[in-house]
Automatic annotation (TrEMBL):
It comes from Protea cynaroides. The lineage of its organism: Eukaryota, Viridiplantae, Streptophyta, Embryophyta, Tracheophyta. SMART domains: FBOX, JmjC. GO terms for cellular component: nucleus. This is JmjC domain-containing protein. It comes from the Eukaryota.
Length: 512
């Protein structure tokens, strides 16, 4: 957030020296600093390097006038209503204040919001109301433009509320980096420099053998073109079709379940930092028509987890989300590899190899938990630039409709939808990563690491037994092959041994 604060301050100081020529509809300063005339605002907010941040046309209006803390330095008043309105609670961080308010219900938040300007801002923080909706209304809600108005409409039908997401009052002297960043991350467009790097290898029309040799065995990502041409989903899967065939079926959306019509209503109207993501592992069982509208690309048809039948872990998902939704950095479950096929829209991918932890990401020593920035945009703002000069730079690409990306096991990856997108992804186990999966499943803390199954403790034994019954001798063959490969890598080459001999002879002669 410090870089955002600097960008705003430097922007203001530069504008005071310029002619007042440029105008626009929205900027980061509009409604954040009333002392600035609207005609002073520029089309972009520039940081210290001259790189621009642009606002979305649909930037959310629920900032409540919150300004970054650095703007207090330029204010004619030294008063920050954030502190005066909190009273003795002013010594707490903004995060802690919101954590405490998270224990309150909607009624108490509404009452507390009338105490002071500061409590008004805190108690109207959208994530507080989002949590209330998801906890108490579950999936049976119709999004009403903002989470607060959605909550009020659900519980107090007689109470008049605006249905356009309007923020209501604006506070002119409230300064907080933490609260401002939430609005900022929801408002920013993806910068062009975040999208222009595309260094993934792209292939079209090559054989399965070539894929295995060049990508699966070396555990290397690749983007595949032209292998979804027979998918009916590419032509049929729009909103109208999906709503019609799915009807009242509910799909997993974060912690709740929603009908597609409800979710699309939400996705069309939401303007927030972390939009809800539809990510359902049982879509083909719930609506068999969806399962028949696609087929597994030929490169990924060896899936050894299938020997478990109905006991196999979750392995396929339909993914739907608006622009800005996505998945922060993670490694796919159970040491599996994966493929992700875009049906509608486009996705930005950033991938790091297993031995490189992305900047800003902090996995626990046992790998059970991962701490990372609150939102994907926040990671791009604060950490993406650090990778420019890395020796092991990330693999990046934009995957468009009709394209498939192969994500090898163990790779860290982040995905953000650049527009409303629909995709299908599957995790799988082939002979190339079978031993990795077996090693993962028998770790001492496997009960915490294994996911997608009700029986985490016994999955290793079940899987190994099923493989040996279905493919006898396969595991032993793969172990022998791996041992031979390891021995070959350790054994010095002929020329290395010759060099070592000469060095040894020289040392011996010198010592004599």
């Amino acid at each position: 957030m410090l870089s955002c604060k600097r960008s705003l301050l430097s922007q203001i100081m530069r504008r005071k020296k310029k002619n007042k020529k440029m105008t626009r509809k929205k900027t980061l300063i509009r409604n954040q600093n009333p002392q600035l005339e609207e005609e002073e605002t520029a089309d972009e907010v520039e940081d210290d390097r001259g790189e621009g941040f642009s606002l979305k046309d649909s930037a959310p209006s629920y900032s409540h006038g919150v300004q970054p803390l650095g703007n207090l330095l330029l204010s004619s008043s030294a008063c920050n209503s954030r502190n005066t309105g909190l009273g003795n609670l002013r010594i707490l961080t903004d995060e802690l204040v919101l954590d405490i308010l998270g224990f309150l219900d909607g009624t108490h938040l509404g009452v507390l919001a009338t105490v002071s300007k500061s409590f008004y801002v805190f108690c109207n923080h959208e994530p507080l109301w989002k949590n209330l909706v998801l906890e108490y209304i579950k999936g049976g809600f119709s999004f009403n433009g903002s989470w607060k108005s959605t909550y009020i409409s659900a519980f107090y039908h007689y109470f008049p509320v605006l249905n356009n997401g309007s923020s209501g009052l604006e506070v002119r002297d409230f300064y907080s980096d933490y609260l401002f960043q939430s609005w900022l991350c929801a408002s920013l467009e993806m910068k062009q420099e975040w999208l222009e790097r595309d260094n993934i290898e792209r292939r079209r029309g090559f054989s399965v053998e070539e894929f295995v040799l060049n990508f699966e065995e070396p555990n290397k990502p690749v983007l595949l073109e032209g292998c979804l041409e027979n998918w009916a989903a590419l032509e049929k899967w729009d909103k109208e079709y999906l709503i019609r065939v799915c009807r009242d079926v509910r799909f997993s959306v974060g912690p709740v379940e929603m009908k597609l019509e409800e979710y699309f209503t939400y996705a069309d109207r939401v303007r927030e930092e972390r939009p809800l993501y539809l990510f359902d592992p049982k879509f083909a069982e719930k609506v068999p028509t969806l399962g028949s509208d696609y087929e597994i690309p030929v490169y990924f048809r060896e899936d050894l987890f299938s020997v478990l039948g109905d006991e196999r872990p979750d392995y396929r998902w339909v993914i739907i989300g608006p622009a800005g939704s996505g998945s922060s950095f993670h490694i796919d479950p159970n040491s599996t590899s994966a493929w992700n096929a875009v049906i509608k829209g486009s996705k930005k991918w950033v991938l790091f190899p297993p031995d490189v932890v992305p900047p800003g990401v902090h996995p626990s020593p046992d790998g059970a938990e991962v701490a990372c920035p609150v939102s994907i945009i926040e990671w791009f703002m604060n950490f993406y630039g650090a990778t420019r000069n890395w020796r092991k730079r990330p693999i990046e690409c934009v995957c468009k409709a009709g394209e498939v990306i192969f994500v090898p096991n163990g790779w860290w990856h982040l995905v953000i939808n650049l527009e409303e997108s629909i995709a299908i992804t599957q995790n799988y186990v082939s002979r190339r990563n079978l031993l990795n999966v077996l090693d993962f499943l028998k770790r001492p803390n496997a009960s915490e690491l294994v996911s997608g199954t009700r029986d985490r403790v016994n999955l290793y034994d079940k899987f190994r037994t099923a493989i040996e019954a279905s493919l006898p001798g396969t595991i032993d063959q793969l172990v022998s092959k791996a041992e031979e490969k390891a021995a070959k890598e350790k054994k010095p080459s002929f020329w290395e041994s010759v060099t070592d001999t000469k060095v040894g002879q020289f040392k011996f002669s010198f010592a004599s």
